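Hello K.,

You asked for the raw outputs rather than the summary table, so here they are, unedited. I folded two proteins back to back in the same session to keep the settings identical. This is the first:
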Amino acid sequence: MSLDAFAGTTVGQPVAKVDSLEKVRGQAQYIADLYRPGMLHGAILASPYPHARILGYDLTEALAAPGVVAIVTGHDVGDGRMGAFIKDEHAIARGKVMYVGEPVAAVAARTEAEARAACRLIQVQYEELPAVLSPEEGLAEGAPILHEHLADYIKVFDAGSTGNLCSRTRLEEGNVDSAWDQCDVIVEGDYTTQAQAHVSMEPCGALAEVDANGRVTLWSANQSVFRVQANVCESLSLPMSQLRSLTPRVGAGFGNKMEPHIQPICVALAMKAQRPVKLILSREEDFEMVRARHPFKVWMKTGAKADGTLVARECRVLLDCGAFADDSPGVMGYALLMCGGPYRIPHLRASGQLVYTNKLRFGAFRGFGNPQVLFAGEQQIDQIAEKLGLDAFEIRRRNMLREGDRWFVGPQIASNGLARCIDAVEQAAKTPRADGSPRNFGLAVTAHISGLLGTGAIVRMLEDGTISLNTGATDIGQGSDTVLAQICAEELKVPLDRVAVASPDTDGSPYNWGTTASRVTYTTGRAVKAAARVVVDKAMEHAAEMLDCPIEELELREGGRIGRKGANTDLTFAQISGRAHWAVGGPIVGSNTLVFDEPTHDPKRAIALGLPFPRIGVFSFAAMGVDVDVDQVSGQVTVHEAWSAADVGRAINPKLVEVQLHGGFVQGLGYALVEEMVWDGARLANPSLMDYKVPTMRDVPDAIHTFIIEDPEPSGPFGAKGAGEIGLNPVVGAVANAVAKATGFRHHHLPLTGERVLNGMTGRG
C-alpha cells in the first residue's frame, strides 16, 4: 500500500497536543483539583499482615474522632466480586486479608488529616494465617489455600484454576520434541525478572458523589471509564445504570489504572456518608496497595541449524499473581504468545503457570509480559549467532517474519516493516564514537499488538459546521485525544481546531474497553474514521439535494466544503448542517462501533489451552540498538547512545510517536538497570522514591535516535497501528546483549545493577 494514498493536511503532521496549553499554564484539572460542595476526604487503613482472618472491628474511638462522618469495612460491601478474567476480589477486605497493604477499612472525614488520624484509632482483631510468598510455595504440597472458594468464582476463559493455581496456558505449534534432533546448536537457560512499580506522576485517586435518587457520579484517575463502571458495580452489587463514571485529566497510567484501585472504596464511603468523598493515595500507599509489573521466572531453550536458521524453541514461565487475578491471566497468555519473537520458528511450545501469593496484585504494565520473555529470547538469539560466527543483524534478518506469514498459533501479518527497522539501526549504529573508541553494541527486535476488544465513536456536525468527537477513550498523557482528532479532521477535511474532543463519560460516550495494549490509535481510530465517513455521506446527501445534482458528481473539499466536480460552486458544512438542523433530515450524526474479531488461534495448525485473548492481532515491529559503557571498578552500566526504530504503520502524529519511543526507552532503561521492588518477607521494603530508584536525566543518554518506519496496515486508520509499548519492549534485550559484549559475561537476572554486573565480571556470577 502506497503512502501517497495517505497524503493529507492533518494526518502525518506533528501538530501540538490539544491539551498542551492547559497543562503548560497549570489549568488542567486532575482529581486533586476537583471539589464538590460539602465534600469529605477519605483515608484507608491497610492490613499489617499478609494473610489473616478478620475476626472483628472496634470502630468506637474512630467514630468519635473529630471530623469523622463515616467508616466502611468489609461488612458494608456485600459479597460482590470483581476481576477482568476471574471474579475473585472484593471492594475491600472481607473475611480475611490477603497482602500487607490491602485496604481493611476506610474513613470519610472533614479533612484528610482527620481521616488519617481516625484510621489509626480503628481496632481490627486478626487471626494470623500461614502466608504464601512465592509461586513455588503456592504450588507446594500442603500449601495453605488462599482462595478457598476458587472453584465458585466466575471465570471468563478456561483458566484451569485449582488450589493456588490461578490459571495455566499452553500453546504449541509443530513438533518440538522431535525438532531438537534437527538442530546443530542449542542454547537454554533460566532467567528471572523483577517486579517494577509503575510510578505514574499522579497517584491513584477518586471522587464520588451520590445524588438524591441514589445515583453515583464518580470521577477517577483511570484508563477506562467503562472498566471502572463495571468493577465498581460488580464489587458493590450496583446496577451499572446507577453509576456514572467520568475522567478528568490523568497523570499517566502505564497499566496500574486500567483495573480498579480505590474507586469502589470511595463510592462505598460516599454512599454511607451521603456526601461527596475524595480519596487520593499517598505515594507510599500507591506502591503498596495497587499493582506492579509481574516478576517472571523463565526457562527457555532455542535450537538452530548450522546456517543460523531457527528450528525450535520451548518456553516455560512461572508468574507470581499476587493476591488477586486482576489482568494477570492476560499478561501470562500474551507473554507466551510473544515468546517466539518476530521470527519464523516452525516448532514452538510455550506454557505457563500463574500462582496466587500473599503479595499485592501484579497486573498490566506497559509491554505486559513481552519484555520479560524477550529478555531471555533475544539473548539466546545472540548466543546462537556467537556460536555460529554470525552477525547479530544477519541472524535476525535470516529468520524474521515477513508480510503474509503467520504469528505463533495463528494470526496473519498484513504489514511488517521490521527489515527496514533493522536496516535503520544498523546503518546508524555503524558510525563510530566521537572519541574513536569501540562500541559495546547490543541489538534486540520485537513486535507488539494493537488490535484488541471493543470500541466506538460518535461524530456530530454542530450547527455551525464544526465537529464534536466522542470516543470514550481516555487520554492518559500519551496524546490520544490529539491523534483521534487528527483522524477525524482528515476524514472530514476540516482544520484540526474545528474538532472538539469530548471527555470520557459513561453516560454519553460510546463504549471503549480501555487505553491499554497500544490499541487506541488503531482500534478506536478505525471507529473514528468510519463514524466520520458516515457524517460525510450524510452531508453529501444534503448537498446533492441543495445543488440539485447526483451524489456521484460531488466531492469533499478542504476546509469542510462539498462542491460539484469541475465547478467552483460549493457549500460549507455550516450551510449543510443548518439545513439538517432546521429544515430537512435532522442533525448530522455519525457513529460506529466495532470489536476486533480476527482469531488469535488457528486450530488447524496449533494447540491452544487456556488462551485468555481469543481475538488479538495487528502487529507493530521494532528494532533497538544500544551502546554501553561498563565501569570496571563498580560494574555500573551506562548507556552511551541508543537507536530505536519502530514500524507504526502510519504515524498519524510523528512528534507524538517520537515522544512514545523516547518515553518507552527511558522506562525500559529503568527496568533493565535499576528499578526493583524488594520485599522483606511479606512487606515491601522500598515503597518510596527515596528507596526505589528510577532513571533521571543524569541516567539517560543524550543521544536517543528514533526512526519512524511506515509500513501501512491495510485495516488501520490511514494505515496506522500502535506505538505505545513498542519502544519499551526491546530495551532489556538490547542492554543485556550490550553488557555481554562489554564484559564477556551473560546475565540471566534483572535488573543489571552495578553489583550484579561486577560479580559477573569477577567470576562470581
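The second followed immediately with the same parameters:
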Amino acid sequence: MDISALIDMIVSISNNIFILLSIVFLYTLSNYELYKHKRIKQVVTGIVVGFLTLFLMTNPMVFEEGIVFDTRTILIPISGVFFGPITTIIASIIAIAYRVNLGGVGMMVGISTIVISAVIGILWRYIFRRHKFKNKYLEYYILGFTSNALVFLLMFFLPDSLNVIRQVFPIYLILFPVVTMLTGVVIKQQQFRIQASNLEKAQMLLLQSSIDASHNVEIYVVDSAYNYLTFNIFHKNQIKAYFNVEIDVGFNVLSLLKDDNRRSRIKTSIDSALKGEKIHDVIYTTLPGNKIIEERFTPLRRGHDILGVTVFIRDITEQRLHEDSIMRLSYYDGLTGLPNRRYFQERLVEVHDNQYGPVSIITCDINGLKLFNDALGHKMGDLVLVKVAEILTRHLLPNGTVSRIGGDEFIFILPNTDYDTALKMVEKVDNEFDKHLFNGLKLSVSYGIATKLEGDHIDDVLKQSEEEMHKSKLFEKASHRSEFIKSILNTLREKNPREKDHSTRVATICTEIGKFLGMKKHDLNLLEAIASLHDIGKIAIDEAILNKPGKLTPKEWEAIKKHPEIGYRIISTAPEYAEIAEDILSHHEHFNGQGYPRGLSGEDIPIRARIVSIADAYDAMVSRRTYKEPVTHEQAILEIKRCSGTQFDPNLVNIFVDLIENGVLYL
C-alpha cells in the first residue's frame, strides 16, 4: 500500500471515529424525557443509530472494488449494550439494506459483520454484563476485541483474503478494540452523569414533596444573605395571608418584616444559626388569636461549610391551650385504662373528709402474675392484667373507684360503704375469678378490706387494708402455686394428650435406674416428679409448633429449646418443687457439653437430669409423633448406645441396657 492510500485510509478511519463519537451525544439525548412511551423512544433511537451507521458506511476505507471497511463493528455492539435489542435491530436492518444496495463481492461478509456485531452487543447487555466487571476499561476492551475478532475471521471468506487480512488486522485487532473501549467508557461516564442528575432531581423533588406535605409547619431555607433558597407551600400561603406578598426563590425574607422587633429577632436567630448554633424559641405573638409560635433555626451544612439556615415555624397555640387535657392523661394507666397511683393518691386525700364516711378500701393483688409471665410470656401477663381490670370494674359499686397502683396491685376506694357491703362485693368478684380460666389457667386474687369510721385516719385504713391483703396472700401463696403448676400440667396434656403417657413411661424407666443406683425413696419420688414435670415449659410454646407434622424451621427449633428454661422459672417459684428445678433446667444437656441451655458436660449435669435424658430420648424414639413414625425397641437401644459418651452418660447407658437385658425393665 503506497503512502497516498495509507493517508486516505487514516483519514477515513479518523472520519469514522469522529462520526462514531456522536453516539455519545445521541445516548445523552435519548435518556432525557423526550418521549412518553419507551417503545417509541427505542424505535426513533434505532432509526437515528441506523442513519448514523449509514454515515459511517458512506465514509469507508476502500480496500478494493466491493470490499470496504468502516467502524460499524464498533457502533453496532455499543448500540446493543447501551440501547438494547429493539434499537440495535432497527439500526442493523437499515445498515444491511444499505450494504445490499452497495453490492460487491464482499456483500455477504458485510451483512454477516453487521449481524455478528448486533448479536455480540445484545448478548453482552443481557448475559456477559452480569459478571459485573469492576474495571470498565477492561470490560469494553473485551467487548471490542470479541466483536472485531469474530468479524476479522469473516475476512477469510473474501477474495484475496490473506492479503486483506495482512493489511487490516492492526485495525480490527488493535485499533478498533481500543476505540470501542474509549467509546464505551465515555458513554458509561455519561450514563453516570445522567443517573446522578436524575437522582439529584428525584431527591430535590422528594425534598420539596416532603416539605410541601406539611400542612401545619412552615418550612423555609435562606442563604447567608437572608434570601430564600426554597420553602414549602404552607409557608408561601401564610406569607400571602399575612403580608399579601407572593414570595419566590431569591426573595429577601427580612424585607417582608416591617416590624422592627420581629425583623431584628429573625435576623439575630439566622445569624446565630449561620455560626453553627441551633436556635429554639417560643414566641407569644400579637397575631390574630394571640397565637403562640415555636421557631427553630438549624444550620444547613455541606461538609464543614454552612450554606444557609433551615427554619421551622409551628403554631403551638392549640397544644398549649390543651396542656390541661394532656396532663389529665397522666392520671390513667396506659395498659388497663384504670386510674393510676397518682389519681388514687389524690382521691384518697379527698375521701378523708367525713362527708364520705364510712369509706371502705379494698387492696387486691393478683396471685402468681410472675408465673403467668414465665409460663405464657409477658404479653399474656399483660392480657391477664387487662382481664382482671375488666372483672374488678364490672363489680364496682356506685361512686367507687378502682385504680391500678402497681404491677399487679389494684385498690378500690368505696365512699359511703360499710365493711359488710365491701365484703359482699369482694365475694362476688372472687366467685367470678373462681369460674374464670385464662388460657386454661385459673386466675386468683388476694384481698384485704378495711373501713374508715369517724375519727380514723385514711392512711391508717389503707395500711390496715394492705396488711390484710398480705395475710391473705401468705395463706394462699403456696397452695396457689401448687394449683397453678397442676393446672399448667393439665392444660399441657389437653394440648398434647400424649404427654401424660409419655411422662408415665419416662417415670418407670427413671425409677428402675434409680433403684439400681441405690437411691432412697425420697430421690425416687423426685425422679417421678421430674418425669411428670420435665416438659412443663412447653406450655409457653405455640401449639402449632408442638404439633407440627413436618420438620421444624430454625426459628421454631429455637422456640422449642427454650422450654427447659421456662420450666425452670415455673418450678423454682414453688418451694415444694425447688429441689428439682435444676434437673428440669438440665434435662437436655449432653454429656459432651453440646446440649442446651447452658452447655454443661459430664458430672456437672445433675444425675437425675442425666437419667431423665436417657428415658426421655428412648420413649420419644419409640413413640409416634406428629412429625415422625416410631422406631423399634431394638433401633432405639442401638441409638442410645451410639450416643453413649456424647449425648448420654455412658455408665447410665450401661445400667439402662443391663436392666433391659436382665428383664428388670420390660419396654
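DSSP finds 25 helices and 13 strands in the chain.

Happy to rerun anything if the numbers look odd on your end.

Regards,
P.
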